[in-house]
């Protein structure tokens, strides 16, 4: 079983295409491409974490449409970490869990998932990654906090190994010493 992460899918959100310069002809093209990309990697026994902003726009107010999109998600378990665009109808879908922030055990490591990038979190001094979305293609993250959004991962879900590989190439957050002085000295 593999654990997959993604964020900011914005299913049904026409305006996200020009806003983030997404390469799709229409919202239906985007929605089908995102689902297809998930199915390319997420196997039936896998777990998928959506780290916020599952759907947005007029379509996200239609229960039948939301259920139709949700019903196409691959994997044995699907979890939602609530983002700023995840309304009550999205949160009421039959997710395996719905949280604002969570710690996920993956490959022997406990990492923190929150839709919003944070400056510090539980386990940060011990190497726990913070996996986030929200900022779309504006910021990849830093050495210990990585953006899992579709806009910076070719519209595909990613694994912890992918996130860790990218994190090693990112700069240390310039504010890290402001909040974790002891960690910087260790």
From TrEMBL:
Organism, as annotated: Paracoccus methylarcula
One Pfam family matching this protein: Metallophos
Molecular-function GO terms, alphabetical: hydrolase activity
UniProt cross-references to Gene3D superfamilies, sorted A to Z: 3.60.21.10
Cited InterPro entries: Calcineurin-like_PHP, Metallo-depent_PP-like
Name of this chain's protein: Metallophosphoesterase
Domain (Calcineurin-like phosphoesterase) ranges: 1-118
């Amino acid at each position: 079983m593999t654990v997959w992460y993604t964020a900011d899918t914005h299913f049904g959100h026409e305006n996200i295409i020009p806003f983030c310069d997404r390469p799709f002809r229409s919202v239906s093209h985007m929605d089908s491409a995102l689902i297809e990309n998930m199915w390319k990697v997420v196997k039936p026994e896998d777990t998928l974490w959506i780290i916020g902003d599952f759907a947005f726009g007029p379509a996200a107010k239609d229960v039948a449409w939301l259920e139709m999109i949700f019903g196409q998600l691959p994997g044995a378990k699907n979890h939602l970490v609530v983002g700023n665009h995840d309304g009550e109808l999205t949160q009421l879908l039959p997710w395996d869990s719905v949280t604002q922030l969570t710690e996920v055990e993956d490959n022997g490591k406990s990492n923190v998932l929150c839709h919003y990038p944070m400056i510090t979190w539980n386990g940060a001094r011990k190497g726990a990654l913070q996996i986030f979305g929200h900022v779309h293609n504006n910021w990849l993250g830093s050495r210990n906090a990585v953006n899992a959004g579709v806009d910076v991962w070719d519209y595909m879900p990613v694994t912890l190994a992918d996130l860790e590989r990218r994190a090693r190439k990112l700069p240390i957050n310039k504010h890290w010493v402001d909040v974790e002085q002891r960690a910087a000295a260790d």
